[in-house]
Amino acid sequence: MFRKLNFFLAIPAIACSLAAFAQQKAPSADEVWKDLAAGNQRYVSGQPASKDLVAQRKALAKTQSPRVAVLSCSDSRVAPELAFDKGLGDLFVVRTAGESADPLAIGSLEYSVEHLHSTVILVMGHQSCGAVSAACGGGKVGSLNLEAVVKPIAASCTKVDAKKPETMDLAVRDHVHSVAQSLAKKSEILKHAMDEGKLSIIEAYYSLDTGEVTRLH
Predict the structure, then answer these.
(1) How would you class 37 by CB atoms within 10 Å of its CB: exposed for 0-12, middle for 13-18, buried for 19 or more?
(2) I need a surface site. Which of 12, 90, 170, 178 has the fewest CB within 10 A?
(3) Which residues are recorded as binding Zn(2+) (predicted)?
(4) Residue 5 has pLDDT above 90, yes or no
């Protein structure tokens, strides 16, 4: 009898706890960026946080809930998990040459937002991007598949002055902005999440020289 009574008395407390949990707001984009920037500074300084990868792997065997989805370039020198000093399960990373938002990339981001409840998408370009250089170089790229890589970047090449190689970075940054702006236009799922305040998009630039990631927008 007393056990039943205790159970029913506990129900309101459980309900209140669940309601409070449901009302908890996800961290803002600025808060998420602050955390990412702190990790990046650890990476830049060569002092990464200690990680128990074995424990992380076991804990994540059946589930994942990455707060941040990253769309970045496939360049082997640009590894988001390392650049932000993150462990397993922290980032949902989508990589394409030139970080372009093709249907496969967008579908992957939709999955992260819709099913894994990521609240931030970080679009990150980088210094000396080969895809941007190829797009702005104006030459033949060699195949239809490679053409599909450079074509989305071409519009950003107007920022480049052939006499000033350093202006290639302007094309990289402009392309990052174009990709970020295109996500809501190309995806109803992402647009809906943004309209409801459940998703923010951050634009960033990675320096190969220093390892530092700079927030653009």
Answers:
(1) middle
(2) 12
(3) 73, 75, 126, 129
(4) no
